Amino acid sequence: MARFDFQNTETAAMTGGDNRAETFCDMGLMYATGRGCDIDVVQAHKWLNIAAIKGCDRAAELRADLAATMTKTDLALALRAAREWMTLH
Q1: Is 78 helix (H, G, I), strand (E, B) or coil?
Q2: Which of 8, 42, 57, 78 is most buried as measured by Cβ atoms within 10 A of its Cβ?
Q3: Rounded-to-integer distance, Cα 47 and Cα 23, Å
Q4: pLDDT 10s digits, 16-42
Q5: In this structure, how many other beta carbons lie within 10 angstroms of the beta carbon of residue 13?
Q6: Domain of life, per the record (predicted)?
């Protein structure tokens, strides 16, 4: 089984390319499922939100499903993290 390399994926996603939204979606799924990392719903929502903003319809659906399971505090943290990331990149 191939290991998901977060650092290379994040770097690739930030530099551009045709698959940016899909890469962000994959990062959200990685955190949501704990694939190669600890499960982190805040980070999962953050990356799914960014993917949705970039045009990934699948990420928008997954984000909505995840948001329904999150606390208001975690959701606020995730939205803030996505906003900060979008501002910087």
Answers
A1: helix
A2: 78
A3: 9
A4: 544 899 999 999 999 999 999 999 999
A5: 22
A6: Bacteria
